[in-house]
Write a structure and sequence with these properties.
Blueprint lengths: L8 H21 L5 H17 L18 H7 L21 H4 L5 H14 L1
Helix pairs in contact: 1-2
């Protein structure tokens, strides 16, 4: 048995995306709900997860991630701008590629891959 350790960024990212897929499954199967109610429920559940209200995964920091040039661009155009944050201040930032990895954690694809692997054996 290995000693307890901090999760890696990849592990946390995987846990988060798997949790989102679990939420999709939950809301998809609810009877007597309209499509809109299901979509709103899913959105609320994801926001609740980010806020730390899920019993199965921790909350997350959600903050703007801007380009350093954005502030001056907005000032020059008489617009408000988002606060700048620095990656060095944040540990385990899982953002930035969630949309790219989202489908990799689709449980239906995992099931298909495992069936395909069994056939190859």
């Amino acid at each position: 048995m290995s000693a307890p350790r901090e999760y890696t960024e990849d592990e946390v990212r995987q846990q988060f995306l798997e949790h989102v897929w679990e939420l999709i499954g939950y809301w998809r199967k609810l009877p007597n709900k309209t499509e809109r109610e299901k979509m709103e429920g899913l959105a609320f559940s994801i926001l609740s997860t980010l806020d730390g209200s899920s019993a199965s995964i921790c909350g997350f920091i959600v903050a703007p991630s801007t380009n350093p040039e954005d502030m001056q661009y907005h000032i020059d155009n008489g617009e408000n701008w988002y606060a700048q944050n620095h990656e060095s201040d944040i540990k385990c930032d899982i953002g930035g590629c969630l949309h790219e990895l989202y489908h990799n954690f689709d449980p239906r694809k995992r099931h298909q891959r495992s069936q395909h692997q069994e056939i190859e054996r």
